[in-house]
Design goal:
This protein is of the alpha+beta class. The protein is about 40% helix and about 20% strand. It starts with a helix and ends with a helix.
């Protein structure tokens, strides 16, 4: 959320004060459109604007109270616009001819669209450096009582669709840490055969609070721990515990979403980590829901393309544009309830020690 950063910069960088009426501020899509159009268009789509902490996401406009709180004048901010449509034309000198800009969205919102989560209740999880789960809530602005976030999913024709979001700080970065700093593996794909080489985690649990814990715990000062080590533990158990931590953290989010009235009937996953089939099956087992994984996992780019297609008139709706998603694979829960309870009890014990 960039509102505090903008406010800080305005107070502490003299050159911004000197710019006066020539100053323009925005998030990355605002900057790109501004530069691509030769400075003619200064807009932010509603999904990105909702991630500044400066927008009243219920009304779709900048919030005067928040602007005053952070010390950001309305005059320097972009106009809030739809996520698709005739958003601007590129400067002809850049590419030899003007090109229409017809779609833009925030990172996770674009992934939600790319996963065709177009109906309320449909949920996607992106496992990249961190993990980000969004449940589409339609035109209903969600209000969480369980430490989740409400966000604009997209805006079309002036109508906003919303989502409930939970963020995990450490996902793929945990595997990078095992590789680059501990030297436990040579390459990230090595974790899958290691996990399959042992029957279970051997009582080893890894709580990956390497940069604190995100939703639903929100404990920035929490520190990571590997719990349950004995002389019987091998690096395969640690690697497996690292992969299992993805399912454990996601289960914590599922519990919070369900408590907010947004339980998951299924989960659609994407991101670099889902190339690990063992991890995706473990997600299905621990969450006890079917997990759907598309062949094309770069769903953020796909969602942006779907919006652009709608904005250019190639498709009449996002539902029609969803044909771009392609084939998907499905992972069905195969773990019995007793084994699931044992796993989750071990996680709760390890997590409690970190939180305690």
């Amino acid at each position: 959320f960039s509102g505090s950063k903008i406010g800080w910069a305005l107070k502490n960088w003299p050159q911004l004060k000197e710019a006066g009426e020539h100053l323009a501020v925005g998030t990355i899509e605002s900057y790109l459109v501004y530069r691509l159009t030769g400075g003619k268009v200064h807009v932010s789509d509603a999904s990105n604007a909702s991630r500044t902490a400066l927008m009243a996401i219920g009304s779709g406009d900048w919030d005067d109270g928040l602007l005053d709180l952070f010390g950001v004048p309305r005059s320097i901010l972009p106009a809030i616009c739809d996520s698709a449509g005739p958003l601007g034309m590129t400067d002809p000198d850049l590419f030899g001819a003007p090109i229409a800009i017809t779609g833009m969205a925030g990172d996770q919102q674009a992934a939600l669209i790319g996963q065709s989560c177009l109906e309320p209740g449909q949920t996607k999880a992106t496992f990249g450096t961190g993990a980000f789960v969004l449940t589409q809530t339609g035109r209903t602005l969600p209000k969480s009582s369980n430490r989740l976030l409400a966000t604009v999913a997209w805006q079309l024709g002036g109508e906003r669709h919303y989502a409930l979001e939970g963020s995990v700080f450490v996902a793929g970065s945990l595997i990078q840490w095992l590789r680059d700093d501990l030297g436990l593996i040579d390459a990230s794909p090595d974790t899958e055969p290691l996990a399959r080489s042992v029957e279970d985690n051997g009582g080893v649990y890894l709580v990956p609070a390497l940069s604190g814990l995100g939703a639903p715990h929100w404990q920035p000062n929490a520190r990571a721990a590997i719990h349950g080590l004995t002389f019987a533990a091998k690096k395969a158990h640690v690697a497996r515990a690292a992969l299992e931590a993805m399912a454990h953290q996601t289960h914590d989010l599922k519990t919070a979403f369900a408590a907010d009235g947004a339980d998951w009937a299924e989960l659609r996953v994407d991101g670099g980590m889902v190339s690990n089939g063992w991890m995706v099956q473990d997600l299905a087992d621990i969450l006890d829901v079917e997990v759907e994984c598309p062949d094309f996992i770069e769903t953020t780019a796909l969602g942006a393309a779907m919006l652009a297609g709608v904005g250019a008139g190639l498709y009449s709706s996002l539902a029609e544009a969803s044909v771009m998603r392609g084939k998907v694979g499905r992972f069905t829960p195969a773990m019995n309830s007793a084994a699931r309870k044992v796993r989750l009890a071990g996680w709760e014990d390890a997590l409690g020690r970190v939180l305690g």
